[in-house]
Write a structure and sequence with these properties.
Radius of gyration: 20 Å
Low-confidence stretches: 1-6
Shape: globular
Order of helices and strands: HHHHEEHHHHHHH
Number of strands: 2
Mean pLDDT: 86
Number of domains: 1
Strand content: under 5%
Distance between the termini: 54 Å
Oligomer: single chain
Strand order of the largest sheet: 1-2
Length: 298
Amino acid sequence: MTELRHPMSLFSWLELIASGLITGGIYALVALGLNLQYGLMRILNIAHGEFLMLGAYLTWMAHTTLGISPLLMVPVSFLALMALGLVIHKLCFRRLTVTSPNLDIFEARGLMVAFGLMFLVQNFASFMWGGDLRGYDYLAEPVKIGEAQFAGNKLLVFGLALLFSGALIALLRFTLLGKGVRALMQSPTGAQLVGIDTQRLHPLMFGIGLGLSGVAGCLLSMAYTITPSMGEPYTVTALIVITLGGFGSMSGALAGGLLLGVVEALGMHFTNPSLKALLSYSVFIAVLLLRPRGLFAK
């Protein structure tokens, strides 16, 4: 006997789209940090997701051993990962800038360094905390909005992800520092000719990029379990989001992250949850073929 499938109600559609937006908010936050590093310095930091994982473990450890609220760990994770980013830039990428004869060689060498960082951080996390799933309960009670129902921690994660994403976009658009960063993204030579100090801006923006990954990891730990291998899929997703939004476009990365989250949610609902990666890569390939500059590039 064939089972009849009832059409989805309006509230079911809203709940499904909202679920995708919540996931997309995290995607956008991770992608913004990576886009900042690549768009400004041409550093394709494929270890970006590993620093997200460090932020998640830092929050988990502080909450489970010291009883510190995950909300208080949001600024701590940002500052800790930002400081780590400044150190990494000074030890690795600043030297590459001096020793590389041209931009192409710098990008290739930077990619190799990022590969090394990825495995180094992964193995460090495995050594420190083991490979078991870790997690904690935080604001897991359901919150009802109209007829739809969401976990409180996921709503909090979405709100904070949008807050940090919006703060970065506002910083780049409305401040003198942001104008300098955008000038460097558009024309590094022209920006240096008018006196913009790349020696200060590059490490600062690299640090802010890693700081945002730490915030994303902190937020993820509030709602999901964490493992030492959790970072790599988020790096790949961030690359897909950046491709959707356009390399160097921050507002495009935000829009691309939210769009990918909704596409994945709808696709998994109407097909199979195991096809999530297939859906993401299909969108990635289609955009590369049809709109190589991104859906939201100007």
